[in-house]
Amino acid sequence: MSKIEWQVDSGTHVVLRNPPFLKRKVELNGQRVDGEWRSKSFGFTLPDGRSVDITLKADTISRTTELSLDGKLIPDIRYVPKDLRCPACKAEIQLLDEFCAKCGHALGTPARFMHRHSVQGATSAIWFLAVMFALFGVVMFFLMRDTTQTALANLAQFPDNEVLQPIDGVTYTAGELRKQVIWEHRGVLVVNLILAVIMVVLAWWSKRRALPAILIATAVFVVVQVTGAIMDPATLTQGVVVKIIVIVVLIKGIKGALSAADE
Amino acid sequence: MNSESAGASCCVKCGDALRTAALFCARCGTRVSAGEPEPQVGIEPAGPSLDRGHELRVVGWLYALLLVTSLFFGIAYHVNPKGDFGPWQSLVFGILIFAFAVPYRNEILALLRPATFDGNARRKLAIATVIQFVLLGTVFYLLEQTGIPFERITDEMQRHGYALWQLLVLYSLVPAVCEEIAFRGVIFDRLHRVLGEREAWLVQAALFSVLHLMPVIFPTHFAMGLIFGWLRMRTGSLIPGIILHAAWNAANILLELRG
Q: What is the pTM of this model?
């Protein structure tokens, strides 16, 4: 991102301009701040004596830019609602307030908005999975139905108790195989609809209690991938980018919910 | 002190400037008139020595290793469908679970003491047995009537010439002991510290059900996880859960063998 803004309080607005191939620039209330970047970190002091540090962080998952004020992490404006109000009494509050000045309600640190953002991302990922499971189930049901009809037509010549040639080392009678074939396309639909319903319930629950809901959603998603890989190991690499993105978003959601619970 | 509050009076506790008409200090929560800190509404005490992240990582690692084991043996069956991997899978599961239980051996051993299987535990076990066998037995019977093909675990073992007692040990007793120690022991206790009792109960049941790797039976196994978890919570013992779990597995094996 080439421009990041922090509205620390009503009189302190910090902007980091980070254009590609050009020099980074830090502005305080529209005025450029002089100073030097040291190992991806820039420090300066506000007129009232508070110290500000901007740090560029990167790991294998993502890149983040953090601003801390006297050691306290401040979320940038993307994370902070425009109209800040106390959740208990709805009185106006400021980003740095840890307690509501009107009712005394404990608000937590400003970083709570970043945690909430991670949790909302995970909730969106759970909704996405619900939709994907439902769509996949319906599409596969119709795609597999024709194959099922052909297989049943081929099996029609055998009586129920006739033992067929082994498939993958397992011997079936015609009746057993018929039963399994009939359930092939229905099973895909039923299983995916069950998963979609589970995800809808978890997405709804995550609005109330984020941590347990995201934990279960992560477990369900990983288990579904493992089950698919056991049935057909080739599925392990299919859509691997989307799978990694979903897992990263869910894990960030768990971390966000955990941090929010720790506050 | 920020620019909004400059020039105002200060908090008696932290010295931060107070807002106009403020009843509490926005920094430390002290009531302006009394000078006493206000109880922190909405903040759940985390406990001084509790590392929630560590507790969740333990659960995550145990669960991930159990899943990787399932994946490994699943692929082994895929490569060699006639292979005799059942006992090895049980052995690896057992080693993993006991290895994770070692750091918490005092907690786990306390839950396995014969003294915990008292009159109360026996009564709760009787109630849970009736609920599980009547309710879930009916659900499984109805599922079978729909024609859903369920995997018969006994077929493979019979192919390899295992006797009934070996089937009962490998598919009834060993899974019951290992899964109860893992889910109602290690995992439940860790989650309890992070989420509280009710949510730990729900999450361990969900983790237990999805680890069976069959989405069709997620709801029924979730209910089973809730019943075993309820026994653990209400009796403070793993023994009733192990007995019910083993009895349920044994009943399924015997029903399968009966055809």
A: 0.79
Of the residues B1, B2, B52, the best mutation for testing chain A's interface (the one with the most A CB atoms within 10 Å of its CB) is B2
A105 vs B41, B56, B199: nearest CB? B41
The answer for A85, left when phi > 0, alpha when psi is -120 to 50, beta otherwise, is: beta
- Supply the pLDDT for residue B49: 53
Is B38 part of the contact surface with chain A (CB cutoff 8 Å)? yes
Contact B229, B188 (CB under 8 A): yes
User: Distance from CA of residue B71 to its chain's centroid?
Assistant: 20
Q: Does B33 touch chain A (CB under 8 A)?
A: no
Where are chain B's structural domains?
A: 70-258
Closest in B2, B74, B199 to A212, CB measured: B199
* DSSP for residue A138: H
What are the residue boundaries of the structural domains of chain A, listed by start?
1-77, 80-110, 114-262
Predicted pLDDT at A104: 87
Residues of A in contact with B202 (CB under 8 A): 212, 216
- Listed in sequence order, the DSSP H helices in chain A are 112-155, 174-208, 210-231, 240-262
Q: Give the per-residue pLDDT at B5.
A: 46
Tell me how far apart the alpha carbons of residues B58 and A155 are, in angstroms, rounded to a whole number. Answer: 50
Q: Return the CATH class of domain A1-77.
A: mainly beta
Chain B residues touching A173 at Cβ < 8 A:
none
